[in-house]
Structure formats: structure tokens, C-alpha cells
Amino acid sequence: MDGKQAAGRRAADEIKDGMTIGLGTGSTVYYFLEALAKKVANGFKMTGVATSQKTIDLANEWKIPMHALNDVAKIDVTVDGADEVDSKLNGIKGGGGALLYEKLVAKASARRIWIVDASKKVEQLGAFPLPVEVVPFGWKHVHAYLSEKGYRPELRYAADGQPYVTDAHHYILDLHLQSIANAESLANELDHLTGVVEHGLFLGMTEKVIIGYPDGHTETLEK
Length: 223
Ligand SMILES: O=C[C@H](O)[C@H](O)[C@H](O)COP(=O)(O)O
What we know:
Radius of gyration: 17 Å
CATH topology of the largest domain: Rossmann fold
Shape: globular
Family: Belongs to the ribose 5-phosphate isomerase family.
Bound molecules: ribose-5-phosphate
Binding site for substrate: 25-28, 80-83, 93-96, 120
Pathway: Carbohydrate degradation; pentose phosphate pathway; D-ribose 5-phosphate from D-ribulose 5-phosphate (non-oxidative stage): step 1/1
Catalytic activity: aldehydo-D-ribose 5-phosphate = D-ribulose 5-phosphate
Largest sheet: 7 strands, mixed
Subunit structure: Homodimer.
């Protein structure tokens, strides 16, 4: 077992029969979905709302019942991964490119739980490159602006050498900041920048973080 598996399995214990559950994206969420699929196979009733095409594909393969976000009135709890988490439960997400749909699903959720391994715990956010989702039209001008600000943006590429395209058909600029002194102010700046659709700063957007360790034990941080 690794830390991701421990956290993913532990999060499945939080799910109650009849819930509508936001399903995050990534390699840690994979283990949560695996545990959820076992519950469903044993007769557990639930509805999932996915945050990416990758998660829809996995859920379909594992016969987890799904609805689109527009088809549910509310989500009881969302379980998602994160790339970095600080002690105030603020985080960076979007390493897998799913930040926009993840933020939409998180905002529609009554409760949010993040599942991570211990490597994701940080003193200060920013060593992980901050993903910024931008519209392809004129993206070079947004890149130039962010460069001038000293944010060291880098266009994300896919394995085929083409720009990485998100599920919502946007590009991603990863900001190589090293550390973020004032996350609120940076989030506010990015929120108001024309051409930016969303960014990976998730501030005050989770109530619980489950940290998994290689020996299988977990630690929970709560607000
Ligand atoms: O866009 C991807 C998501 O924000 C993921 O939840 C995040 O990148 C963590 O992924 P993983 O669990 O694979 O490290």
C-alpha cells in the first residue's frame, strides 16, 4: 500500500448510502473510486458527479452511477486530490488539468474532502507550479503579462508535443513561483485577469484533508 491508496480507501468510509458525491480527478482519487465501486457492487446506493472525462471513464468502467453537474440540485460531499496543502487547508490543484471542473463541483458541494499522501503537505504553497487555465485565443498576451509580473509562466504540453487542452478546451499556463507569499492577493489578481478562466489556488475550499502514509495509516486535518 502507498499513502495515496491509504487516503483513498479511508475517504470511502465517509460516504453514506443515498449520497450524491463529487468525484475528483487523479491518481489518489483512483483508489477512492476503486473502493466506492466495491461498495456499489455490494448494493450501496449513490450518485456520482465527475470532475473530468478521465473520472467519467473510470466510473463507467466500474459501474458507478453518474449524473452531470447540471442534473443534480446539490452535492453532499466531494472527494478530490490536491497537489499541495498547507496547515490552513488551502491548496494548489490542477496538476492533472482538471481545476476548472473541480472548482465548479467543489463550489456546488456541501462538504469537501481532500485525499493526499504526505508529500503534499507544505509550509507555504508555491513549490508546485500553479496551473492557470486560459482561453487559447490570445493566450500569448496573457503569457507575456504573467512573465512581466515575474510569475514565470510555462505553456503546458501534452505527450504528443501539442499544447495540453483541458476538458473545457482551454490551455494551461503553469506558474513557476517557487513560493506564494500572499495566496489571497494572487488569487484575486488571477480572478480578474481577462483571458484567465480559472486558477489552481483553492483557498478555503475544503473542510477535511485525509493524509495517507505508506504503512497504511491516515491522519485527518479538519477545520
Ligand atoms: O487536476 C488534477 C487534480 O487537481 C488532482 O486532484 C491533483 O493534481 C492531485 O492529483 P494526484 O492525486 O494524482 O497527485
